[in-house]
Amino acid sequence: MNSANVVTIALSKGRILEESLPLLSALGLEPAGDIDRLLRVPSKAADVQFLIIRPTDVPTYVEYGAADMGIVGKDILMEHGGAALYEPLDLNIARCRLSVAAPKGYVPTPGKRLRVATKYPEITKRHYAARGEQVEIIKLYGSMELAPLVGLSDVIVDLVATGKTLLANGLVEIEQIGPVTSRLVVNKASMKMKHARIRELLVQFEATVRG
């Protein structure tokens, strides 16, 4: 099939991919290849293929047209800035929350600028700026819970699903920034060029989610 007629969907690796598979299966779009090894995978629908990529890369692939659609967490969209994408549907999968956490018993020091470790510097900056607070942001890429335990930061901003990892490391949630679910996003040019097929997929996704 001509690539111009193929709809490419970028899927986020990890938990989102796992929870996307039953939804895709219900639409007859099961991956028809090894999703653990391949980065580009055909689907059982001849005109749909998948890219299996890191969640943080999904908005970029969709924004620049390397993928027509994508499934990605709302946290990534908030950090990326989603203005360049259509975000037509909340898929209501991979549910979690974005929270501020601190060591149990933590008490802020008056007059001291708060140090926050996070992989979400933009979200964190906006969150505290909305309250008129200036904070020092330390960007990390993993092992967030360690930062306050070794004095690198006072608190962290991170995703929380069950809270078990926080608890195991002596941390507690002290504030919720907001709930996070996975969203379906669409490239704006693709929405025009492949409108009929993408619109059909959107209707099917929405019916499956609501059903």
UniProtKB/TrEMBL annotation:
Q: In which pathway does it act?
A: Amino-acid biosynthesis; L-histidine biosynthesis; L-histidine from 5-phospho-alpha-D-ribose 1-diphosphate: step 1/9
Q: What are the EC numbers? A: 2.4.2.17
Could you state one GO cellular component term attached to this entry? cytoplasm
SUPFAM superfamilies named in the record: Periplasmic binding protein-like II (SSF53850)
Residues in domain ATP phosphoribosyltransferase catalytic?
54-205
> What is the annotated quaternary arrangement, including any partners?
Heteromultimer composed of HisG and HisZ subunits.
Name assigned to this protein: ATP phosphoribosyltransferase
Provide the species name. Stagnimonas aquatica
> What are the top taxonomic ranks of the organism?
Bacteria, Pseudomonadati, Pseudomonadota, Gammaproteobacteria, Nevskiales
